[in-house]
Every structure is written in C-alpha cells, then in structure tokens.
Design a protein that fits this description.
By secondary structure, the chain is of the alpha/beta class. Helix content is 30%, strand content 20%. Strands 3-2-4-1-5 form a five-stranded parallel β-sheet, with helices on both faces.
Length: 255
C-alpha cells in the first residue's frame, strides 16, 4: 500500500509578538513532527524566536534553512532548491512539515518559493497555508491607524529606485506602505520632502519585537542606518493641518 505523503504547512507567525500567532498556527506548530524555519548567516531565526514559547520541548525535528539576501537570482534559486530537497523526502515519508515564517506566508515570503518547488518535484504533496499578521497590519495596530477607509486607495510596495514610479504611487494613493525602506531611506525622505509629504510619514522598525522603534519625524532619520525590518507608512491627512500621528502610541517606543 502506497504511503500517504505528509502535508507542508506554511505558517505565518507574525512580525514579533508571540501572542499574535493564530490558534491554528499554534496547534500545527506543536503537533508537526518537523519544524522548518529560515535562519540568517549566524544560524539565528526570527521566526523560531517568535514561536519559542509554544514549541514542544522534545520529539520534534528542527531544520534551519539559510536563504541569503542576495541580488544574484542563480544563487537565490540554488538555496531555495536545496531547502526544497531537504524537506521533500520527509514529506514523502509521510511526515507533516510546519514551515514557519515571519509575517504572513503568502506575502513577500520565502514560503511562496518553497511551495512552488515542492509542487514542481511532487505535485501530489498537499500544501496548506495558515495566515499570519503581516508587518503592515502589525504596524497599523501599533499605531492604531486605519490603513484605508471608504474609497481611499492603499498601496503596498517594496522600496525601489524607480523614483518616478514611487512619486506617481505617492500622488495617487491615500496610504502608501513602503517595505524594506532602510536601504533607500535618504532617497525616500528627499522624495517626500519634495512632495510636501514628509510630515505624513512614519517609519517603524522591528514592529512588536524586541527593539521596536517608531519614528514620527522621518526627516531626522536622514543619514541613519536602520534595521532591515523597517517599513514606512505615508498616510495623507484628511484635513489641512491634521497629522495622522496625533494618536498616543500606547506601549510603543516612539521617537
């Protein structure tokens, strides 16, 4: 009798706060025989740190996987395929694998590449996703800021040096979230200043995680090096002179 393959679960664990994990994610993380997670070059895992309070103490195999932050597509593909080939035999042996990732597993996440690879090698392996709190929604929660209401337009984009495109997006949307903004921070500040939008912007690093910082005066950040996990929210004021950042930031370390 042919063995039933295990299921690959992509589980979003949120941006940092362990209690933002969903009940389904909590159950699967505790019950899966294999827990896989991304690690950095030092072998550290943000995702694993987030769920550490919930993982069982024994009888669970842990697999850390390194995905380098490189612009070389061939190198990225090589590491992704290596990760897929480590998980594939376990799944074919009938073991369920919980692959945890920061934020949401289907929103700018490594899991998207892993599931494509698994399905390419063996389309019979079941794949499921468990949503998590993205950094976008986590930041909105920390700021108690409605991202969009009524007919307002919302854009979520990674930081890019396509400045004309960035300008067009800023001019045509009510709320713009710029992900991974640290690398292009000075350029974004220059653009916002030219468009008279600097006062409508806020930068958040490590939202809900240790070391969280909320910067409401983005012009003061010029020339500074921010953490990789930093994003910018530009929320246009609805009335002249009304700042979107007037709400007290309860429990947040703001600057």
């Amino acid at each position: 009798m042919k063995r039933r393959p295990g299921t690959l679960y992509g589980i979003g664990v949120g941006p940092g706060e362990p209690e933002w994990l969903t009940l389904q994610g909590h159950r699967l993380i505790r019950s899966a025989p294999v827990l896989a997670y991304p690690v950095n070059a030092r072998g550290e895992s943000v995702a694993l740190r987030i769920v550490k309070p919930w993982i069982p103490s024994a009888d669970q195999e842990h697999i850390g996987m390194f995905f380098p932050m490189t612009r070389n597509p061939d190198e990225r593909d090589r590491y992704r395929e290596e990760a897929v080939l480590r998980l594939l035999p376990l799944l074919e042996q009938g073991k369920d694998v919980a692959f945890i990732t920061e934020g949401d597993p289907l929103f700018y996440s490594t899991f998207g590449h892993i599931q494509k690879g698994i399905r390419r090698f063996n389309p019979h392996i079941p794949v499921e996703a468990v949503p998590g709190v993205s950094s976008v929604h986590g930041t909105a929660a920390r700021l108690t800021l409605p991202l969009a209401e009524g007919k307002q337009r919302l854009a979520v984009i990674p930081a890019t040096e396509e400045w004309e495109r960035m300008e067009q997006i800023l001019l045509t949307h009510d709320t713009v979230i710029v992900l991974k903004v640290a690398r292009l921070l000075d350029g974004m500040i220059n653009l916002l200043t030219r468009l008279d939008l600097a006062a409508d912007a806020c930068v958040v690093s490590h939202v809900s995680a240790p070391g969280e910082k909320i910067h409401r005066d983005v012009t003061s950040l010029k020339g500074m090096a921010l953490p990789y996990f930093s994003l910018m929210i530009v929320k246009k004021r609805e009335k002249e002179g009304e700042s979107p950042w007037l709400n007290p930031l309860s429990g947040a370390s703001s600057i």
